[in-house]
From TrEMBL:
GO annotation (BP), single: glutamine metabolic process
UniProt keyword Nucleotide-binding present: yes
A cellular component annotation (GO) from this entry: cytoplasm
Key words, A-Z: ATP-binding, Ligase, Metal-binding, Nucleotide-binding
Organism: bioreactor metagenome
UniProt key word Ligase: yes
Residue ranges annotated for the ATP-grasp domain, each copy included: 115-207
CDD domains for the chain: MvaT_DBD
Reactions catalysed according to its record: hydrogencarbonate + NH4(+) + 2 ATP = carbamoyl phosphate + 2 ADP + phosphate + 2 H(+)
Any one Gene Ontology molecular-function term assigned to this protein's record: ATP binding
Alphabetized PROSITE patterns for the sequence: ATP_GRASP, CPSASE_1
Protein name, per record: ATP-grasp domain-containing protein
InterPro entries tied to this protein: ATP-grasp, CPAse_ATP-bd, CPSase_dom, CPSase_preATP-grasp, MvaT_DBD, PreATP-grasp_dom_sf
């Protein structure tokens, strides 16, 4: 399993827990020491190292796993899995990809393959084309019209992309995107800022209700243990009782001390000199 960032903590931690329950030896690679995913209870072997292709290769050669789960580690996990798959490293070491396979990752990450897939199923897409160099990007932009958004392939969070209002801006953004994309590929797409946005959660709730489901039911399907967890205990408001004033009278000097907490300086001196039990016997009320 390749972990990568805090937002994948829940998914990765749940995967580790399920695999452990199934008796699978879990080898975890995660560069984030703050995540609970790196707790010894969740993985058998833990590597707090930068998730790179070379790091994963070294760990695979050492641990000799039979499978790799990369779909829960964000873009880093997917990118590394594709690199190891394309150079035949996984096949040569008898490691199979669990969950999302290489072909599915490619279809989702490669801009051209994704667009082709949408066309195959008749799903409308925004006017766009693939470019592997700046000159092609400029030609595509002239054809579909500005403003243009540049979407690099296989980058973290769309890094290297941006919006261009004209050819001069596009030239700079396209070059950056091509440099950052590991396969030197960008999608040149018409920018649709200002179009109507659809609230996903509202539509999801309506769709679930149509089939007699609710979000809590879906959560229980995804995480069967969720409903077994003890409900959160409401914090009780605790009223603090006022402390009683205590009065001590020193029979030797006749001095009187009034205190609530017992931290009076004179009282401490008396206890040090005569002993706590003796001073407590001087309590008058």
């Amino acid at each position: 399993m390749i972990g990568q960032a805090a937002e994948f903590d829940y998914a990765g931690a749940q995967a580790c827990r399920i695999l452990k329950e199934a008796g699978v030896n879990v080898v975890l690679v995660n560069s984030n020491p703050a995540t609970i995913m790196t707790d010894k209870a969740l993985a058998d072997e833990i590597y707090l190292e930068p998730p790179t292709a070379e790091t994963i290769k070294r760990i695979i050669l050492k641990e000799k796993p039979d499978s790799l789960l990369a779909g829960l580690g964000g873009q880093t996990g997917l990118t590394i899995a594709m690199q190891l798959s394309k150079d035949n490293f996984l096949k040569e070491n008898n490691v199979r990809l669990l969950g999302t396979d290489a072909e599915a990752i490619d279809r989702a990450e490669d801009r051209k393959l994704f667009k082709d897939t949408m066309n195959e199923i008749g799903q409308p897409t925004i006017p766009s084309e693939i470019a592997n160099d700046v000159a092609t990007a400029l030609e595509i932009a002239e054809k579909i019209g500005y403003p243009i958004i540049v979407r690099p392939a296989f980058t973290l969070g769309g890094a290297g992309g941006g919006v261009a209002q004209n050819a001069k801006e596009l030239e700079v953004i396209a070059k950056t995107g091509l440099d950052m994309s590991p396969i030197s590929q960008v999608l040149i797409e018409r920018y649709i800022f200002g179009w109507k946005e659809i609230e996903f959660e509202t539509n999801l709730r309506a769709l679930l209700a149509e089939y007699g489901y609710s979000l809590p039911k879906v959560i229980n399907l995804l995480d069967p243990h969720a409903s077994r967890r003890a409900p959160a205990v409401e914090a009780k408001v605790r009223t603090r009782k006022p402390r009683q004033v205590k009065v001590y009278k020193n029979p030797h000097s006749g001095e009187v001390v009034e205190t609530k907490g017992g931290n009076h300086r004179a009282l401490k001196e008396w206890k040090a000199k005569y002993g706590s039990d003796t001073v407590e016997s001087w309590l008058t009320k």
